[in-house]
Write a structure and sequence with these properties.
- The chain has 2 domains: 94 residues, Elongation Factor Tu (Ef-tu), domain 3; 126 residues, Nucleotide-binding domain of ferredoxin-NADP reductase (FNR) module (Rossmann fold, 3-Layer(aba) Sandwich).
- Helices cover 19% and strands 32% of the residues.
- The chain is globular and about 50 Å long.
- By secondary structure, it is α/β, with parallel strands linked by helices.
- A 6-stranded antiparallel beta sheet has the order 4-3-6-1-2-5, with helices on one face. Strands 10-9-8-7-11-12 form a 6-stranded parallel beta sheet, with helices on both faces.
């Protein structure tokens, strides 16, 4: 389907969100799914091609607009997208994937995000708050420093609005003099077990770079998680 770029805005250091409007055709998705975005006539080109897969960072309530967000790595695709003016037309294919919130509200959900791996969780949590879902939700969000923490104000607002949503951001390399009132340090088994009362019953969702995903998969059983309740999605190329 075709969509046009409505807005480009920064959401963190070297990180931008792109909002597209899909026109003329019906489009449905579940929060947490992905789409393929193709630039038909990119300003820059390289061997990596003109298509990228992005998690949808918006919720179904935002339709016919959808939002994607990405770290700006300097690739030809991302430079082309960043410099594209409003009204630029792209092709969107999808949605794809099953990295979505489980239906059984009696089972708590814990989201572990590393860096730009936050994008599917932004959509899932936004959707849960908007629909007032009864699931108990916890987001553990790791970044190097405060300036690289995308969508911070959104999660802060949702944590105030929804009593069943626990927001736990942390920095691994906080900058000197940087204003920060949350945790610091790596997410490890002690970090999680001290903040989760019922890890054995919780469904865990992990998203981020491969190293982060692997590390979380290794520590979660040590924090009391059932390995059968761990779902993961790796973000390559960030």
């Amino acid at each position: 389907m075709k969509a046009r770029l409505v807005e480009t805005r920064p959401v963190a250091d070297r990180t931008a969100a792109f909002i597209f409007e899909i026109a003329g055709v019906p489009f449905e998705f579940k929060a947490g799914q992905t789409c393929d975005v193709t630039l038909p006539a990119p300003k820059y080109e390289d061997a990596e091609g003109t298509t990228r897969t992005f998690s949808i960072a918006s919720s179904p309530a935002d339709l016919p607009r959808v939002m994607f967000a990405t770290r700006l790595t300097g690739s030809a695709f991302k430079r082309s997208l960043l410099e594209a003016p409003a009204g630029t037309e792209v092709e969107i294919e999808g949605p794809f994937g099953s990295f979505t919130l489980h239906q059984n509200a009696k089972r708590p959900a814990a989201f572990l995000a590393g860096g730009i791996g936050i994008t599917p969780f932004h959509g899932i949590i936004k959707d849960a708050v908007e629909r007032r879902l009864p699931h108990r939700l916890a987001l553990f969000y790791s970044n190097r420093n405060a300036s690289s923490t995308a969508f911070l104000s959104d999660f802060e607002a949702w944590a105030k609005a929804a009593q069943n949503f626990q927001f736990v951001p942390t920095l691994t390399e906080p900058s000197t003099g940087e204003a920060w009132r949350y945790a610091t340090g790596l997410i490890d088994a002690n970090f999680l077990s001290s903040r989760l009362a019922d890890a054995a019953e919780t469904i865990f969702y992990i998203a981020g770079p491969a190293r982060f995903v692997k590390a979380m998969q290794e520590i979660l059983p040590k924090a009391g998680a059932d390995p059968d309740n761990i779902r993961a999605e790796e973000f390559a190329g960030y």
